[in-house]
Amino acid sequence: MASAWKKDKNQKLLSPKTLISLLVLSIIFLSSLFFFFSNSSLQYSNPNLSINSPYPIPPFDCFKCPQSKPIIANVVENLKYPFVYSLADLGNLPEKPHKNIVRLLKGKPFRKPDISATIQEVLDSMRASGKNGIVVDVGANVGMASFAAAVMGFKVLAFEPVFENLQRICDGIWFNRVASLVTVFEAAASDRTGDITFHKLVGRLDNSAVSEVGARLAFKSNKEIAVQVKSIPLDKLIPPSQPVLLIKIDVQGWEYHVLKGAKKLLSRKPAEAPYIIYEEDERLLTASNSSSKEIRDFLKSVGYSKCSQHGTDAHCTKE
């Protein structure tokens, strides 16, 4: 008995790095179990998926979508209207987890995405002036802009062609209880109807770009997977009678084609024309055979005379 005690006493303790890794894996495992058993009795329904859908393409059905796993979700910090979203990029587990996973382990919320705060500020101002309408989120990723608007009570049309992101959006629709507000399309908004080739990056399947070069520039990768996705112009999907408050576009260099496909929508008179937020990264635009000048010239042609730069985003309005 004495020798056994001596042996136990000399055993080495686990290093802090190993303990953190085990904790991360435990959280992932427990989260997956929780969601599996929760979904076993979940009667999820989306009122936007009715048989008489007004849209030319069917909305994405989260109920029929395979559940994403593992699930690591948390509330976002420092927002007037907080929401929860699910991570798609987990980092390199267990050695180098995503920064938000580290924050979660420290008991902190996820870091506030800049676009979420911007969306809420713009919509708050519009609502205060008596305006109403829907929000269009093109390149929705995991829903950080869509949920920022939906938790404020605004209806959202979200476009996202990457399946791994669609799974996370479905997570967020459930977590935030916004199934009646968010309609998702597994499609790329563009200037033509049909199919378009997207390039998903190996190791970052949650992100993509139409341009193969643009995909590598945006996410620093040398390998990608080409996939075919549906494309549709916004003018084909949004009727003239539908008020639109805001269009957010983040499509890794394909912004010009999205805007061209919304020419009728953008040609509305100033009081009805949507506020536009789009990413204006010259490297990505060049990779897609476009430019910031081409975009600004097009916007001027439909009456958007006021554009201002906010980091890598441009904000444009009509006066």
UniProtKB/TrEMBL annotation:
Q: Which Pfam families match?
A: Methyltransf_21
What top-level branch of life does the organism fall under? Eukaryota
User: What is an annotated GO biological process for this record, any one?
Assistant: methylation
InterPro entries linked = FkbM_mtfrase, SAM-dependent_MTase, SAM-dependent_MTases_sf
Molecular functions (GO terms): methyltransferase activity
Q: Which residues form the Methyltransferase FkbM domain?
A: 137-305
Segments crossing the lipid bilayer = 20-38
User: Which SUPFAM superfamilies does the record cross-reference, listed alphabetically?
Assistant: S-adenosyl-L-methionine-dependent methyltransferases
Cite the Gene3D superfamilies for this sequence.
Vaccinia Virus protein VP39
Keywords noted in UniProt: Membrane, Methyltransferase, Transferase, Transmembrane, Transmembrane helix
Q: Identify this protein by name.
A: S-adenosyl-L-methionine-dependent methyltransferase
Native source species: Arabidopsis thaliana x Arabidopsis arenosa
